[in-house]
Amino acid sequence: MNRQTATLVLASITILVVVTALAPLIPVRQQRYSELGILGPDQTTRGYPTTVGVNQPFLLYGFVGNHEGSIENYQMLVKLGIQSTLVSNSTYANAPVLSTFWHIVRDNETWTFPMTLSVNQVGNNTRIIFELWSYNVPASNFEYTGLWNQIWLNVTA
Amino acid sequence: MENDLSLSVFWRCIFTITLIVLVISTNPIRSHEADGGQLATANNSVNSAFSSVYYAEQNGGDVSALVEKLNIAVFLIQKALTENATDPNAATADVSNATTIAQMVSMNSTSVSSSGAMARQLRLYESLGTVATTLGIAAAAYLKGDRVYRRLWLYVYRNHVVKKSDE
Fold this sequence. Notes:
The structure holds two protein chains of two kinds.
Chain A: H1 3-22, E1 33-39, E2 51-53, E3 58-67, E4 72-81, E5 97-105, E6 109-117, E7 123-136, E8 141-156
Parallel strand pairs in A: 2-8
Antiparallel strand pairs in A: 1-3, 3-6, 4-5, 4-7, 7-8
Chain B: H1 2-32, H2 36-58, H3 64-83, H4 88-166
């Protein structure tokens, strides 16, 4: 082996070892997001109720995923809306809260939970709105994540 | 006259007994029901503990156990909300336990945070040490490698090959 080849091999090994040693210190940039899903009574995306009686309990499942890169303090607010209730990714619904579900989820983990809900007033095109809120640590309050979902119901007497 | 006096005493007794009964019957409800203040305290304790755990995680601490405990506190608060109307004593106990758990989590998160920060610093020093050692060895090998290799070769050859062939 001549001197030039030896130098090249030595430099390669040195670079490899240095990069391996420094790799854990380099922060990995990845997309940060939360997930929200509403599942039917059999924990799939089927079998959602369309008609229920007043005060008749029905079962749904909530699904929340945390990919924010840190632990998250989530609250799922279930609201009773009507056809004209406004809700969007930037505005939460101004509607009465039926129920609140609360859990702290670690990074890259999911939270699936049962929700037994009921509606106490008759109405066609009633909307059950699900909003995901998370705790903002510097601001010390829960903030709307912009994630929401809904199911439409006819509530009969 | 005597009759009037005894009647007055009778009514006074009735009034006093009624008052006592009222006080006894209302007091336990007030003292055992988990009121809004207790719930707000428990909620604030959990959120404050969450902030501590969040910063502990940011510092590199392993917060798995703390998150589990905090979720127990959250569960107790939600349980208290549902049982407040039916079993106020249990609701009060749950809220109190939730507050205690959250406060303990807050306290423990400090040590988790500092141990995480220490572990992170240790990893940094380890990495920098590895880099420095590698560069040192590489530099030495580059500068003195030839001479060391030749001397080593000569030493091995002289001691094990040359001597043997002389015999």
